[in-house]
Design a protein that fits this description.
Blueprint (H helix, E strand, L loop, with lengths): L4 H22 L5 H5 L1 H17 L13 H15 L11 H4 L7 H17 L4 H11 L3 H4 L3
The structure holds protoporphyrin IX containing FE.
C-alpha cells in the first residue's frame, strides 16, 4: 500500500499524542514531602523551628516540661506523613496531645510564626510553604481552647 500524505500526518499526530501521554505518565505530581526535600530537610526545619520556640518568650514556658527530642521526632513524623511521605506518625492525635493546655489563638499564631521563620530561613518557596500551612492550619480546632 502506498503511504499517502494524509496518512503520515495522521501517524505523526498520533505519535505526538501518545508521546504526550507517556511523558505525563513518566512525571507524576511530586508529593509535597519530596518537594520539601524529604526527611533530611524536614528534620532540619523542625530542629530550627523548635530552636525558635525555645527562645520565644511568648510560648516557651509551655514547653518547660516537654520531652524535646520526642517532640521533634513526632513533629517530623506528623509533617512527613501529612505531606505524602511514607512515614508513620506514632504520637497522640492533636486533641489528646494538647488537652488541658488551654492553648490560645495567640499561642497558636506565635508557634506558626516561629515555623514560618524557619521555612523562610531554609528558603522554602511560597507555594510549598502555603501548602504546608494549609495542612497544619486545619488542626487548630483540635489544639486551641481545651
Ligand atoms: C499546628 C500547630 C501544632 C502542631 C502541629 C503540634 C504538634 C504536636 C505534636 C506532634 C506533639 C507530640 C504529641 C505526642 O507526643 O503524642 C505535640 C505536643 C505538644 N505541643 Fe503541640 N502542636 C501544635 C501547636 C502547639 C501550640 C500552639 C503549643 C503551645 C504554645 C503546643 C504545645 C505542645 C506541648 C507543650 C506538647 C507536649 C510535649 C511533651 O510533653 O513532650 N503545641 N504538639
Amino acid at each position: 500500500m502506498r503511504i499517502k500524505p494524509w496518512m503520515s500526518w495522521a501517524t505523526l499526530i498520533a505519535l505526538f499524542a501518545l508521546g504526550g501521554c507517556m511523558s505525563a505518565m513518566d512525571t507524576p505530581k511530586r508529593s509535597l514531602y519530596d518537594r520539601l526535600g524529604g526527611q533530611p530537610a524536614i528534620t532540619a526545619v523542625v530542629d530550627d523551628f523548635i530552636g525558635n520556640v525555645a527562645s520565644d518568650n511568648r510560648i516557651n514556658a509551655r514547653f518547660a516540661k516537654a520531652n524535646i527530642p520526642r517532640l521533634k521526632q513526632r513533629l517530623v513524623e506528623l509533617i512527613s506523613s501529612g505531606t505524602g511521605g511514607n512515614v508513620t506518625y506514632t504520637g497522640r492525635d492533636m486533641r489528646s496531645a494538647h488537652d488541658g493546655m488551654f492553648i490560645t489563638d495567640a499561642d497558636f499564631d506565635a508557634l506558626v510564626e516561629d515555623l514560618v521563620k524557619s521555612l523562610d530561613r531554609f528558603n522554602v518557596p511560597e507555594k510549598e510553604k502555603g501548602e504546608l500551612l494549609g495542612i497544619l492550619g486545619p488542626m487548630k480546632p483540635q489544639i486551641v481552647g481545651h
